[in-house]
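Async update (no meeting this week)

Hi team, since we skipped the sync, here's where things stand on the single-chain job. The sequence we agreed to prioritize is pasted below, unchanged from the tracker. I ran it this morning and attached the output directly underneath so nobody has to dig for it. Comments welcome in thread, and please keep replies under the output.
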Amino acid sequence: MKYWIAILCAFSICTGQEAGYIDSTKVKDPGLAWKLGAIPGLGQIYNGKYVKAIGFMGAEYFVVNRFIELKKENRIGLRNTYAWWTFGLFVWNMLDAYVDAQLSTFPVRRLESNNDIDSLKVKLN
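Output:
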């Protein structure tokens, strides 16, 4: 009986440790992602978020291009607005790259639920 308990304990320890294993090749460096975020879209490419990278690159291109056009037209009010948009997108790009790198090892398993049990329905008889 002692052997069965020892085997059961050893088996449960071995299987429990494997569930929390994080592959070190998939861990992203948040410091590097933050630095790469200084160039629009590069931090997202580092994190493997290619569609998001294209979105950031396109948005930054549009805002900077519009800023230059408004500067040539001497429309100072709108030019300053687009300058703030440029700064906001720049900060958002860097923060997003940093957060995605931090969450690179976050488990992606979804919990399944039974809606009948989980709901707060009240049955009247």
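Quick observations from my side:
The CA atoms of residues 72 and 79 lie 9 Å apart.
The mean pLDDT is 77.
Reply here if anything looks off.
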